[in-house]
Amino acid sequence: MCWAEQPRPVEFRRIPAATLLKSRCLPLSFATYTPKRVQKTGRPWRLPLLLAAVMVSMGLLMAPTGSGGDAHRAEALPPAAASPEPELVPTPSPTPTPEPTPTPVAPYDFSQSAPETGAVEMEYFQDALFIGDSRTDGLRLYSGIQGTHFYCYKGLTVYEMDSRKVAEVDGTKYTVLEALEQGDKYAKIYISLGVNELGSDAKSYEKAFSVFLDRVKELQPQAVVYLETIVPLNPDKCRSHRQPYYVTNEKVQAFNEVLPRLAREKQVVLLDIAAAFADETGILPGENTVDGVHFTKDLYKQWLTYLMSHTVDPEAYAAGQTAPEEEPTPGPAETPGAGDLEGETTR
Length: 347
What we know:
The chain is of the alpha/beta class. Helix 6 (202-219) links the parallel strand 5 and strand 6. It has helices at residues 17-22, 36-41, 46-62, 134-142, 176-182, 202-219, 235-240, 249-266, 273-277, 297-308, 314-319, and strands spanning 128-132, 149-152, 165-169, 172-175, 188-192, 224-228, 269-271. The N and C termini lie far apart (150 Å).
């Protein structure tokens, strides 16, 4: 060691500053140690000099030597390059799922009679209305139909839709047109009129029926309107039951030629029940009628079965509706020969 312990009292030799600068073994504690001689000398300028020498010695001791010093050399590192901000890529909006395009419903063809379809349940008639004469009343009484509504009366004709009070609404009697306006709204309306009009001519019948159908569609625009053809008569039984002379199948045929034209022009559904119940000769079989005009219970049931298996989709019906052409309003319909064929309705 360059520094040796001495017996007390300790005396220090005066070491030149140059020697201190060259020394590398000066203890670090020397910087905080002040010899007594220095404290008593009264030479205050030596203390700073001594401290400076100590600091220089420490710097030399800590200075790196040789090539290994490069590892400890403090180098000024270049400032870190600023990281580029990430580019904001807009999130694409999800492509909306298109609503499925509903398949358009084919419009109903009003130039045909309603084709046979799957039979509906009895509940189908809960929002239906039947308008007609004594034949329709027989349907109400003997077919087994349930839960439906009727504006019908024996002897009723198409000429009396705005004059004869036969329809009851809330305990009050109205004409058919008044009841259609003030009563319930129906989804289906079945119309069967023509037997009591056989005493008139086909032209008057067509004119009156045209006006009536317009009013029905005006007062009940939501309804599917069914127009039924006139079932033929049985001539033999008509004679034996003394039906009026004008009650003939020739007149029935003339009226039935009118109804398809009305169905097409007024865009209502034609139900050709005449073809369904006539035999191969075009007349009503004797076993299906009680008086040549009205039906047996069995035929009334067949009539209901026919109605249940010949229905039209309301959407197809609505799709087939087009704006009607302007037509001159017909004058009051004449009612020559119209009469009430009362007779029997069943047996």
